[in-house]
Request: fold
Amino acid sequence: MPSTRSLTALPKVHVHAHLDGSYPREAVLALARRRGVEVDLPQRSGAFGGPDGWHDVWEFFAAYGRVPALVEDLDDLAELCRALVAQEAAQGVVYLEPAVEPQLYAPRLGSLRDVTRVVLEAFADAATRHGVEVGALVTVNTDQDEAVAGELAAVAVEFAGAGVTAFGTAGFEEPSDLQRFAPHAARARAAGLPVVAHAGQTGGWECVAEAVDVLGATRISHGVRSVENPEFVQRLVEAGVVLDVAPVSNVALGIVPDLAAHPAPVLHRAGVGVTLNADDQLWFGRGVSDQYAVARDVWGFSDADLAAVAGHGLRIEGMSARTRQVFGSGLAAWLEDD
Ligand SMILES: [Zn+2]
Reply:
């Protein structure tokens, strides 16, 4: 008999979610209406496995940039941040760590520091209201942010322990010269922030290795192409590197042909700490709970498997001891409940 345990009720982390690609659709449409602007957001309600609508990824990224452009002041930004936390709390998220790129709003709306402060305040306010914990992963886009990377690291360090929980890199094209960002990553690590790097999405396992070796990354956003080298997968297991994978996103952007072919089950069974994430719910139309539905419906994960995958979230460094405890007992309760 198929399980009827609720995947929304399954306690989970959501730690690979880009702020600007994850705002709730209704909140973005409401903002656009206030601005008198038409914004063309994809409506994706069909079956899993075939999100489409873009000619190529560049068309996708062009559309993506229109959302931050709608934000005209820091109050708008705070409102979207609060709406995001509410959306995630409703999906059973106990710990949310959005990837925040204040450089998408600064200097237009204020300094990097001011923008970051407003985002952190909005997160903290909404976290209290919705009973979840929220950290921020301050993120450098390796394609375009080299000039501000040092300043972003300084902001991350300033707010370490006061809302910022990690420092990271993103970028669709994976550069081979991560050395450029190594001093900034080292500075963040010295302040106690884990480094979380995008790698192994368009680039191969060597890009994941470089992120680990050069940036000292302990978590990888995506990392799915690690599967191409079983020896390297073993190294990830031994080093305890967590892969924050995003199955629906990978299909939408053509990284894997379909959900059935996604490497997450292989990685999970090899012993890698895999978390499931939406990446950009606003664009791919699927939230974090939906990724667990993929694991159940497409990969045939049992409820014990689902709880084990959700349980990899206990390894996320930024989470407080209190949340970790509530999360751990919530997972056990979910499995016991029938
Ligand atoms: Zn991502």
